[in-house]
Description:
alpha+beta; Dna Ligase, domain 1; four-stranded mixed sheet; two-stranded antiparallel sheet; 4 helices; homodimer; 31% helix
Amino acid sequence: MKRHSQQRDIILEEVRRSKTHPSAQEVFERVRPRLPKISLGTVYRNLEQLAAHGLIRKLELPGQQRRFDGDLSDHYHIRCLACGQVDDIPGPLRVQVRQLPATLNNYTILGHRLELIGICPRCREAAEANPAHEQ
Amino acid sequence: MKRHSQQRDIILEEVRRSKTHPSAQEVFERVRPRLPKISLGTVYRNLEQLAAHGLIRKLELPGQQRRFDGDLSDHYHIRCLACGQVDDIPGPLRVQVRQLPATLNNYTILGHRLELIGICPRCREAAEANPAHEQ
DNA sequence: CTGAATGCAAATTGTTTGCATGTTC
DNA sequence: GAACATGCAAACAATTTGCATTCAG
């Protein structure tokens, strides 16, 4: 990030504006109206760079594609088991995951990743409307 | 899993025997000596099927490829930030992540995924030997 | 003998990279 | 004008799928 670029500015703006933890592809689509010639490769490069510099967060989600988050505050995420939607857990966490030992298994512990799993309101309603258990 | 197959039996055996949370590719390589004609597609299909039936666990790790675990006991994993190695945390967990509310953010909470992040002994030693902080 | 499981190869998806060109400092 | 950033297309890695063949019940 030695030089400045318009592409990067706009990518950052769009990630910050977005409330939905967009994937690189989604950022690409959001940016395109403003920069019709931008390429997906540029979006990837800039997202990685912005994350490396701490301007956005990179969310590496189990079994899902990478997503990005413009909200830098310390917060956890919850994922819908049914539709995969990822939401923020608002406010400071209530779950206690704090008292981690300094070492475990001979590892030096640096931190943790916690993701809650649930069913989002939308999917719950759908399930109630049609209580068939497929799969 | 309506019919029986030798391939599936051997895949299950090898996943159980392995202590390293193998990827599909690694399972493929472990199975190959015993079944030289097996294809990677078959390994994928059977791993998914075994996981769906609860005979093995599927580990979807953030930003990494899928891995499988023959150990069905309730345990967490720790991942080395440097080398990506995934180890079991032995014994019942000491970290408290239990008192989850029943609903949060209007989601029905079903559970959580927790992964500890640290530096494994091997990488720590390497870092001490060569204290350059690259990237 | 029927349908599930296999092997093989091709297709898909998400992401990265090489390179010629444009842009910023 | 040197080095970084871009656009484009091709390359890659992990996983999935279509299909003809084999195999289990």
